[in-house]
Specification:
The protein is built from 8 helices and 2 strands, in the order H-H-H-H-H-H-H-E-E-H. It is mainly α. The protein has one domain. A two-stranded antiparallel ribbon has the order 1-2. Helix 1 runs antiparallel to helix 2 and helix 1 crosses helix 6. It is elongated.
């Protein structure tokens, strides 16, 4: 069963992973790091997608998610080129394949410059959904003091319900 606490922990984990992947990507934009970055962003966006519209429409939260969506989009062409280059047959001295591979690498590099520049602009941003001061999911420390988790009372208030079952939250489906 999904509880506000387990959901928030999952969202926080997705945010941390995405943030770590952005840093790794900026440091070394290898084929693997591009793939890992895109996967972590898709997971973050999917996890955030089940939040009530009341939360998703908040200006800061919306901008935060849009920046990750843009980074995902900027890396789509790079990932496509990586896949094509990996599948491109290596035909030794065949000039056609050599020219094609060179052109694809140039496309990758030019796309990568823009994507890395944008990634650098979001690298330093805090994870807004559970840590930002004005976030509706602003959290308190749990018993261990390590993992920030919003209070159950706060999530119930945001979602307009006293139930711990997200399916019964009034804003959950709105």
């Amino acid at each position: 069963m999904i509880t506000p606490r387990s959901y928030t922990q999952s969202l926080s984990k997705s945010e941390k992973i995405a943030s770590d992947r952005v840093r790794a990507y900026i440091k070394e934009p290898s084929e693997e790091n591009v793939h890992d970055l895109r996967t972590s962003i898709r997971r973050l966006l999917t996890t955030a997608n089940v939040l009530p519209k009341k939360i998703k429409r908040q200006k800061e939260f919306k901008k935060y998610l849009e920046s990750y969506a843009k980074l995902l989009s900027l890396n789509a062409k790079i990932r496509d080129v990586d896949i094509i280059l990996a599948k491109l047959p290596h035909h030794g001295d065949d000039p056609i394949f050599s020219i094609l591979a060179t052109q694809l690498r140039e496309i990758r590099e030019s796309s990568l410059k823009r994507a890395k520049r944008f990634a650098s602009s979001i690298k330093g941003k805090k994870d807004i959904s559970v840590r930002a001061k004005n976030s509706p999911l602003r959290s308190s420390r749990n018993d261990s003091g390590k993992q920030p988790v919003p209070s159950l009372k706060r999530l119930k208030h945001i979602c307009g319900s006293s139930s711990t079952n997200p399916k019964t939250w009034t804003s959950y489906t709105s």
